[in-house]
Amino acid sequence: MQMSFPSDIEIAQINEHDKMKNINEIAAKLGLTSDDVEQYGHFKAKIASSGIRKAMKNDDGKLILVTSINPTPAGEGKSTLAIGLADSLQAIGKKSILALREPSLGPVMGMKGGATGGGYAK
Amino acid sequence: MEDINLHFTGDMHALTSATNTLAALIDNHLHQGNQLNIDPRRIIWKRALDINDRALRNITIGLGGPANSIPRQDHFEITVASELMAVLCLSQDLDDLKERIANILIAYTYDKKPIYVRDLHVEGAITMLLKDALKPNLVQTLENTPAIIHGGPFANIAHGCNSILATKLAMKLGDYTITEAGFGADLGGEKFMDIVAPKLDHAPNAIVIVATIRALKYNGGQALKNLENEDLNALNLGFKNLKRHVQNMRYYHVPVVVAINKFATDTDNEIKLLETLCDELGVEVQVADIHHHGSKGGIELAKMVVKAADKDANYTRLYEDAQPTIEKIDTIASEIYGANNVGYSPKAQRQLQTLKDNVWDDLPVCIAKTQYSLSDDPKKLGSPRDFTLHVKELVPKLGAGFIVVLTGSILTMPGLPKEPAALNMDVDNDGRISGLF
Amino acid sequence: MANLSDIEIASQVEMDPIQDIAASVGIPEEDLSMYGKYKAKIDINNMKDLDDASQRGKLILVTAITPTPAGEGKTTVSVGLVDALSNIGKKAAIAVREPSLGPVFGIKGGAAGGGHSQVVPMEDINLHFTGDFHAIGAANNLLAALLDNHIHQGNALNIDTRKILGNVLLI
Fold first, then answer.
1. How close, in Å, is residue B408 to chain A by CA atoms?
2. Helix or strand or coil: residue A79?
3. Secondary structure letter of residue A71 according to DSSP
4. Can you give the pTM of this predicted structure?
5. Most-buried pick from B95, B314, B400, C164 (CB within 10 A)?
C-alpha cells in the first residue's frame, strides 16, 4: 500500500469519533434492551444471560462461513472481508450480524495486523 | 479497534489467570504431599501467557529447596492455544463449562492412571474465574453493523473459530450471521465443518472462500517481495491452491462462493484471468473492494451470498467420531491435505495406544499444522501431492472433547520476529495510540 | 442474627447504578466509562484541577497493628468509617487498592472489606475487576518477551544475560 493512505488505526480513529454509536443503540437494533447488556465503556458490552435467554426464543437466521486459501505471512484479509460482507448485507437491507474471534495480544505485538479487519471494513 | 486489539473486555486475561491458577493448584498439590500420586514428569497441563515468548516454551520450576515446591520441567503455551480457550468456545452455559473443566485431563499418576480436574475438586473455582468471560461481547463495525466478538482460538494450533454461544446468539439475532474460520480452509474450514458444526447443530448455509491475487501468485512460486508486480504465469500456477480448497469445501455439500479480496496492486488482467479460471472450475466468484470502499465495495458479493445461502445444502461430515483416531487422521490427511501417507513418531505411536486403552478413541481430531501449506511443511506451496504428514504428538483435550494432533514442527508458543511491531507503538498523554497498525 | 458470609451479605444489597453514585460526588456521566452497571472508570482529563489545593477535602489514613495472616480488617474499618461519615451527613469517599487474585485462592480471601462494611460488587472487585492487574501483568511480560527476543535475534545491544533484572510475573 502507498504511504499516502491512512493506516488502519488512523481510519478507525477518524471514523470512531464521528460515527460510532453508543452500544445500547446497536443492541436495540437486535431487540436487546439496556437491561440485556452490561456496558464496558460507551462502545462495548457483554450480553447478559437475560439477553441470551430472550434471543434464544427467536428462530435461527442463516449462517455464512468465511474461510480462505493458504495465506502469505501477512494474511489475506479474511476478517476484513467478513466485516465488509456483513456491512454490504446491511447496505442491501438485510439484518446481518458478525460472529468473530477475539484477538490475542501475542501477534499484536509481533507481526500480522490486529484481528479486527483493515481499511474501511472494520 | 484499539480496545478490541488490546485488553477488550478482559476475557483473554481471565483465561490466562484461570489456566495459571489451575497450574498453581496442581503444583500446590505436589508440594502438600501429593495424595493423588501425580507423576511430576507426566503433568500435561501447561501454564499460559498471551504473549509470544519463545523463552517460556520449556522451563524448570520449583527450584530453591523444599520451601519452593517440587522441581519439574514445565511449559508455557499462548493463551489462545490453551484448552480453557477451547472449552470456553465450546460451552453452552456455565453448567456445561464447569462439567467440561471437570473433565480436563491434567496429568497421569506414577502407575499411569489419568488425573482430571475433578480429582482436584477445583472445577468450581476455575469456572468462577471464567463466569464473565463466557458472556459474548457486543461491538459494531465502522458502518454500525452489530458484531459479536467472543473467544479466540488460533486455527493452526486449536480449533480456530469464535464461541459456539456467540454464533448461536448471532443466528437468533440476525437473519444473516457472518462467521470466520481461521487461516486456510484446510485448517479453520475443516475444523468448523467437522468439529464445530456438529456441536452447533447447524452447518453453514454458505461458505465464502477468500482469495487474493497476491497469495495465489505466492502459491504459484513468486517471491514475497515481487507480489506487487503483474504475473499471470504465477497466478495461473497458484490457482491450483484455490482449486483444492474449493474442491475440499465441496466435500461438505454446502454452497461455495469465492471472494477476491482486492488489493490496490491487482491488475485488470490478473482479475480477469482469475475470474475465467473460477468459471472453468464452475464456482461462483466475485471481486470485493471492501478494504477501500467499505460496504459499497461488497454489494455484488452480498447479493451472491444471499442467493447461495438460499440454495439447498445437504451437509455431510468428512468422518464419523466413532471411527478409530488413526482413520480420522488418515481421512483428513488424504482428502483435505492431499497426503499419500501419515507417519507417526514413536511417541505418537505410544499415545495412539493410550487413546485406545483409555477409550478416548471416539473424539473428533483437531490437527495442528502450519497454515502456509496444505502439507505440514510451510515451504510446500500450491497444491502439494505425494507427501507424508508427520504426526509428532497426540494430546487428548478431554474438556474440549477433541484430540489435538501436532504435526510437522508446529509450536503452541510462538516467538517474536526480528523487528517486533512493538517497536513502533506509542501512546501520548491524552491516551491517543499510534503504531497499532 | 445468623452468621452470613461476606458474599451472602453483599448479594442481599441492592446496588445503585454507578452513574448515580458518581453524580452524588459531582462526576458527570460523560466522564465515566462503564464496566457493566456497577463499575466505571473515571476519565480524569475533564475533571477539575487535581493540583488545586484550595479545592481539596480532608484526608484520613487508616493503618493498623502487626497483623495475623488472616488480616485485621483495615479495609473493613475503612469502609465502615466512610459509610458512617456519610450517615452523619458528611460528603465522604473512600480510595483503596485493587485486590490481587493471588490471596483470593489462598487463605486471606477477598480484599473488599467484610461483613456489613464492604465495597461492592465484591466478587467482581476480588476477581478480574476492570482488568488493571491483567494489563500490568501483560505489560511486564511483554517487556520480558521483547528482552529475550532481542537476545535471541542477535543481541545487538550486547546485553549481559547474567545481569537481567526483570522477572516473569503472574497475577
1. 16
2. helix
3. P
4. 0.85
5. B400
